[in-house]
Amino acid sequence: MRILITGATGFVGSHMIDFLLKKGESEIYATKRRRSDMTNVSHIKNDVTWIDMDLADSHSLFQTLKTTEPDYIFHLGAQSFVPMSWNAPQETFVSNAIGTINLLEAVRQLELDSKIQIAGSSEEYGLVTPDETPITEDNPLRPLSPYGVSKVATDLFGRQYHRSYGMDIVVTRAFNHTGPRRGEMFVTSNFAKQVVEIEKGREPVIHVGNLDAQRDFSDVRDIVRAYWLALEKGIPGEVYNICSGEAITIKELLNMLLDLSKAEISIKEDPARMRPSDVEVLLGSCTKFKDQTGWAPEIPFEQTLEDIMNYWREIL
Description:
By secondary structure, the chain is of the alpha/beta class. The chain contains ten helices and 14 strands. α1 (11-23) links the parallel β1 and β2. The chain has two domains: 2-178 and 217-246 and 285-293, 3-Layer(aba) Sandwich (Rossmann fold), CATH 3.40.50.720; 187-214 and 247-282 and 300-315, UDP-galactose 4-epimerase, domain 1, CATH 3.90.25. The longest helix is centred in the first third of the chain and has 22 residues, at 89-110. It starts with a strand and ends with a helix.
């Protein structure tokens, strides 16, 4: 089986490669930009075929698909940091929405029979009222960030190409996911890194943003397994939430990380870490996906956080 992964050097992409290699898949094509940071994939860089490609460059994408003719495509390439989308809304939309159009157009023009998983996001739901939780796939989409808007467009393009051209596309809306290698700008990894820096002698103060927001967290290793099942057992044209079905506040998350350290640490609010508008509650229902595929999270969140802490202890 020929498998293509976009955004393969990223956090999720690197874990997707890990998962596929453990399954014994050998014909894996991993795309990257010419100057991509290879840190996340340094341990597997010789185990897959790397291809320089930019999602914004329709020609290079077309040539990549023409050369590889993949059976499965995991479309993970994106500008995925929500706060950055406020500062770079155009870049975010081009990377996420236009990049997806370029991918789907190349598959269509080449008349490939590829199964395509498009990584949407729970940020598409945006403004959610308390009576709408847990969030199902039928909930209205009211994005509250340029990133969320770009992912709504990505999501809709995937379903439109399925309906218009009969392409085998499944859209997944993963809620928050984390684990080792998560970029330090993301909350779990950022907090963990700060705690480890304090363990190593930094001033014992951790800087935080909004601690009241509630999020539904899963381990990235459970998420990539879900992405595989989405193509193996998902119904083309459908959208599936992928989540734990449980939410905690960011404050509870921080306290769990602090409990994993012996350091005495105080907490300080940082206005620079506040967003212009924030999604207060993201709690999902994964019933539809579980019923279709039999998937369920396997890694306890406490284990995920411990693995992140140990990752930063090794790095630092």
